[in-house]
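Journal club prep, notes for RB
We'll compare a predicted complex against what the paper describes. Inputs for the S-adenosylmethionine case:
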Amino acid sequence: LYVDHPLAEGQSIPLERDQAHYLFGVMRLSEGAPVALFNSRDGEFVAEVTLAGKRGGELTCIAKTRELQMPPDLWLIFAPIKKARTDFIVEKAAEMGARRILPVGTDFTNSERIRQDRLQAHAVEAAEQCGGTYVPEVADLMKLDRLLADWDEERQIMFCDETLVGAAEALGEVRGGKWAILIGPEGGFSEAERKRLHALPYAHAVSLGPRILRADTAAVAALTVWQQQLGD
Ligand code: SAM
C-alpha cells in the first residue's frame, strides 16, 4: 500500500477513508493483519493493522523489508489521447519504471485537459500492483514548447518519430544518465515541431519500426527499447 507518510519502525500511520475501505472492506483485513507499505522515500516496511474502522484506521510499522528502489532517471513525455488510452499509458509507464510522467500539449494534441489527480491515482495503483517502492510523479499538462524552453540540456530525449525511414540514429551506449522518451499525439507531431526536435542537440530521433503505431502502443514499445538499450 502506498502512503504519503514517513515510515520508520514503530511509526503509526493514520489511514484515510478510502484506504480503510480498501483494506478492511475489500481486502477484509482485521486488527493484527500484516500490510506492506511504501512511500517513495523510505523503502518498504511491513506494518500491522492496529485499528480497523469503517471510516479510518491505523497501521503501525514493524520492520523495514526493502530499501527504496529508485527507477532510472527516465521521463515519459506524451500528448494525452482518449481517456482510457491515456490511463493505459500512465499505468504502463509506472509499471515499466519511469520516474516522471509528463502529459504535454502539442500542435495536434487531441485533449487539452487532463485529470492529473486521476492519473496520479493510476500511477499509485500500478506501482502497488507491481511491487514497486516508488510512485512516479504525474505532472500537470503543459505545452511542449514551454517544457523545451526550460530544458536541462543534460537530459537526452529519445524522440519517437514515425516518419523516419531506415536506420534510426543510434541511442548511444551510455547507460544511466538523464533521459526522456517523447511520444506524439494521434495526429503525430507537426512539421514545425518535428523540425525543432530534430535540431535539438540532445534529442535522438528513433524509429519504432516501419508501421505507424498508436500512441499508447508506441509508449510501451519505446519504454521497452529504452529499458533494453539503456536501462540498468
Ligand atoms: N493515428 C494513430 C493513432 O490514432 O494513434 C497513430 C499515432 S502515431 C502518429 C503517435 C505517436 O506515436 C507518434 O507521434 C510517434 O511519437 C509515435 N510512433 C508511432 N509509430 C511510430 C514508429 N513507427 N516509430 C517511431 N515513433 C512512432
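Talking point for the session: The chain has a mean pLDDT of 93.
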